[in-house]
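Bit of a strange request maybe. I'm writing a small parser for structure token strings and I need a real example to test against, not something I typed by hand. Could someone generate the tokens for this chain?
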Amino acid sequence: MNVLNTLFGRGWQVMKKLLSKFCGLANQESLRLKALVIGVFSVILGLVLLGWYWSQEPQSFNPKSDKPLVTGVATTSTLIRIVDTVLAKPGGYLANDLIPPGVWTDNMPNWEFGVLVQVRDLSKAMREAFSRSQSQSTEDSDLALAEPRFNVDHKSWAVPWPESEYSDGRDYLSAYRSRLLDEDNYAAQFYARADNLRYWLGTVETRLGSLSQRLSASVGQKRINTDLSGAAGATQSTRAPAELMVKTSWFEIDDVFFQARGTAWALLHFLKAIELDFAEVLARKNALTSVQQIIRELEMTQQPLRSPIIANGEGFGLIANHSLVMASYISRANAAIIDLRELLSKG
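Reply from user aminoacidic:
Good idea to test on real output. This should exercise your parser:
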């Protein structure tokens, strides 16, 4: 009996040691698992907050500068600063990011694309119209090098690097501006003429018209096909139905919205600069108030967005439709641009 008690006691001691050791290991594994979960959660939370910070739209600025009031300097300086803003804002250039949080932040890349489209259009107008006295004159050497740089694929993540190409384009614009400020260098010119301004505004008109249609299509609409209206004897390559169902995909609604925000942000600054460089032309055409009204409409598109998502309610429903609100301001600005082009064509 004593032997059994002794064996049982020793067995119990061994079992307690094994259980104690196992529980210790289990506690260590539990602590490691908790640390891993907390670490992963912290990283994800940090990336989400960083992505939110990077998605904040840059503030507006005043195109006026302390540089001498030389024709074309305000427009060129504004274009340079906008390119710098796209490249140097928090998070830098995001459209071609392949790692978090840039890879999943699509609002800011679409905003960047809206700005870039306007940069491309204005740099093209400067190369083809603003810097040339007539159609047969020689194009400016720096602008001829700057304009193609801004047309690099904005999503490219390999050679050519968009950031590098856009920086080079900015440098060529800076060189052109330096030559404008040089009183002895008459080869660099900026011609503030009504026909030059109409040329650029014609491109702006088509861009805003397209954005307005895409924004309005957020709720879907049957539209009459007016492609050939008013064009006697005109034909088109492929026959289209008399009625078209137009609707922006649910997955693209926020993309179109932020592209419109970026477009309006860039145009707002460009028109403020145009107001300075073309002041005499606009005053002579009695068109200064038209430019100021366009600026006012574009300023309304930059109101703070107080919703965490781009709501897509019905036109007269209970839920707001941010795309339709944006389309309203864009359409009004576009209508004012059409009127401005008419004013510039008279007299």
